[in-house]
């Protein structure tokens, strides 16, 4: 009996009430969805997609709550995010209330969560195809911009002659937003996809060139003096000292370039390329299908978040000594 009481007390000590907040918010949202009827004039008021999603996340939250009782790491991480998860759930509950329950907003522009979720279930194959087109277009533009930007940055940062001739051109052309080049790009390049790659690469090129050259120029001169004393050539100083030491700046430039490339990517897809999520959003906007527009925006948000998160994971692995300097 004493051991059983001790075990129960131990479990009670490990339980943190904050881990129950997301589950509580989900229960409130579920009850609101079930007990409050949809507005009679609401379109597609018979849909239950939102209810199914809430039930799924409620099951996940309960499982995580139970795991947190027995696992300290899970409990601490879940406790830290619990207020956010609970608030996020309540936010969508309010959105559901004002869109389909009370119909306080115009349905055409502010569809209910049910209608948005229905887009994912009905058009997931086509959305994945559009996302794949966006992904490969972004990769092509990033690779082209990175290669040219790093080479240009190394030349400008290492060679005084290149700095003299190239840097003024960078200062003139670089600050121009990539999207402003779209009309000229569509004329110069034979295909709209090539024009889109150019727009993405242009924005990436400028960011990487500036930060790569700055990183190389900020390397301590004493490093080169010591290596030259030991017999190192200029190329050895460049590839074994200057470039490795400037990697933090290069990765920072790549991060800035990635964020700006998303803007160029969406602009290119909305105005030129006939494929991708940006094109899908623009197409659905033109036919006034706003549930599809919101679904596309959600996909873009998740895609950009995951892309940059993976980028930072790679950066933290390669530059372990700078882990946490720039957080994401």
Write a structural description.
This protein is mainly alpha-helical. Helices cover about 80% and strands about 0% of the residues. It contains 13 helices and no strands. Helix 5 packs across helix 13 (about 290-320). It starts with a helix and ends in a 10-residue tail after the last helix. The model has no long low-confidence stretch (mean pLDDT about 85).
Topology, please?
Elements: H1 2-14, H2 21-35, H3 49-70, H4 72-101, H5 113-158, H6 160-173, H7 182-188, H8 192-217, H9 221-229, H10 234-245, H11 247-271, H12 277-286, H13 290-318
Highlighted features:
328 residues; mainly alpha; 13 helices; 79% helix
SSE run: HHHHHHHHHHHHH
Low-pLDDT stretches are none
What fraction strand? under 5%
Strand count: 0
Count of helix runs: 13
- Average pLDDT metric: 83
Distance between the termini: 49 Å
Helix amount, in percent?
A: over 70%
| Radius of gyration of CA atoms, rounded to a whole number | 26 Å
Biggest sheet overview: none
Based on helices, strands and strand pairing, what is the structural class? mainly alpha
> What coarse outline follows from CA principal-axis ratios?
flat
């Amino acid at each position: 009996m004493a051991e059983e009481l001790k075990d129960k007390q131990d479990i009670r000590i490990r339980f943190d009430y904050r881990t129950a907040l997301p589950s509580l918010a989900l229960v409130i949202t579920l009850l609101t969805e079930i007990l409050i009827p949809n507005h009679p004039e609401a379109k597609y008021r018979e849909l239950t997609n939102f209810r199914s999603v809430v039930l799924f996340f409620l099951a996940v939250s309960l499982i995580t709550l139970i795991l947190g009782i027995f696992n300290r790491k899970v409990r601490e991480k879940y406790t830290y995010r619990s207020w956010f998860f609970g608030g996020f759930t309540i936010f969508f509950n309010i959105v559901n209330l004002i869109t389909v329950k009370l119909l306080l907003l115009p349905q055409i522009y502010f569809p209910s969560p049910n209608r948005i979720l229905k887009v994912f279930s009905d058009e997931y194959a086509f959305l994945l195809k559009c996302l794949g087109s966006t992904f490969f277009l972004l990769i092509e533009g990033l690779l082209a911009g990175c290669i040219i930007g790093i080479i240009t940055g190394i030349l400008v940062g290492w060679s005084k002659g290149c700095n003299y001739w190239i840097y003024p051109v960078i200062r003139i052309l670089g600050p121009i937003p990539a999207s402003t080049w779209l009309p000229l790009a569509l004329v110069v390049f034979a295909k709209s996809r090539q024009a889109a790659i150019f727009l993405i690469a242009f924005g990436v090129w400028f960011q990487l060139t500036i930060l790569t050259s700055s990183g190389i120029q900020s390397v301590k001169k004493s490093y080169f003096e010591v290596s030259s004393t030991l017999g190192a050539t200029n190329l050895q100083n460049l590839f074994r000292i200057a470039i490795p030491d400037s990697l933090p700046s290069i990765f920072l430039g790549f991060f800035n370039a990635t964020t700006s490339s998303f803007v160029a990517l969406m602009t290119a897809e909305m105005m030129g390329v006939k494929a991708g999520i940006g094109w899908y959003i623009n197409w659905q906007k033109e036919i006034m299908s706003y549930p599809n527009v919101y679904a596309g925006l959600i996909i873009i948000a998740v895609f950009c978040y995951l892309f940059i998160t993976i980028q930072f994971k790679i950066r933290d692995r390669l530059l372990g000594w700078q882990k946490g300097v720039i957080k994401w």
